[in-house]
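Me: Here is a favour to ask of a fellow structure person. Could you put it straight underneath, so I can go through it closely?

Assistant:
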Amino acid sequence: MSKIVSNWRLFGAAALLLATIVLAGGATAEVDARWKREFPKADFSKHSVDLGEIFSGGPPRDGIPAIDKPAFVTAKEAASKGLPDREAVIAVAINGDVRAYPLRILMWHEIVNDTVGGVPVAVTFCPLCNSAVVFDRRLDGVTLDFGTTGRLRNSDLVMYDRQTESWWQQFLGEAIVGTLTGKRLKILPVRVESFAKFKARAATGKKVLVPNDPSARRYGHNPYARYDSRSRPYAFFRGKMPTGIAPLERVVVVGKQAWALSLIKAKKKIVSGDLVITWESGQASALDTTVIARGKDVGNVAVQRRSNKGLVDAVHDISFAFAFHAFHPKGKIHTLN
C-alpha cells in the first residue's frame, strides 16, 4: 500500500484514512451516509451494481477537480511551453475542430467538460485503468456536465453528472447509480497519440489544452510511478484477473473484443473483418517513469474501419487487461500465444 499512500499524499491524511476504511469494508451503512451528505440530490435507491463494489479512491467529491473552462493554445505555442513530442494526447476532431488534451493534464484532472465543433463533450482519463474515453454530453435533450465522485469501481473512475448527481462508470459510459441508472452516453471515436503524431496528422488550426494554472499540479509528472510495470493493480481492485495475459498489459478494446498491445506491436497491422488496427513507435507511457516524457515507448495505435469513404476512425479504448476483463468477463482477448 506504500505506493498508494505516496500517490494520494496530495489529498491529505484524512482522505487516506477514508480509503483504508472503505477498502476494508466496501459500501457500509456509514459510507452510504457519507455519500448522501456529499451527493444530496442523488437517488441511491436506484442502482444497477452492488454498491459494495464501489470504493473510495481517497479524495472526496471533486477532490480531483474536473476542468470546466478549458484553455487552449496553438500546437506551436504548446511546444514552446514545453510539451514534448513523445508525450501522449487525446486527439479529438469534430466538424473541423481539432483539439489535443495532453495526458500530463488529464492525469491530474481526469475530466474536461468542453465543446468541440459544436458538440458538448466530456474528455475523460482514468489513470488506474489507462482508459481514455470521450463522450457526447447530450442525453435525452439535456446537456450534462461531469465531475469526479472520488470513488472507484473495478479500479475505474466513477463520475457524476451535476444535473442529477447520478454516478457513471467511465469505462462504459453507463450510469450505475441514481436517477439515470441504465442510461448510456455516446462514445466518440478519438485517438491517443504522441504530440508529434498529432501535429503531423491534424489539420491547421489545431488547439492544445494547457493548464489554467500551471503551478496547480506537477504537470508532466506521473504520480503513479512504474504503475504499468506492476504485477497487479493497486488494492482498489478486488476482481478476478484475466488469464493468459499480464493484468497491466495494455489491450486495444473494441466492444467485447480486445487485442494485446504486444500482439499489435509484433504484427504492426491486424485486420479483423472491416476493422484495421495499426501500430508504430513513438509514444511515451504516461504511467511509467515519474517524468512522463522519459517513459517507455508504448507506440501509437490507430483503430479504423473500412467504409465507402475509405478508412474512418473507430470507437475504441486502450486500457489495461484487468479492466477489460472486469467489465467484459466473457470478452475475448487476442494475444500472441
The mean pLDDT is 91.
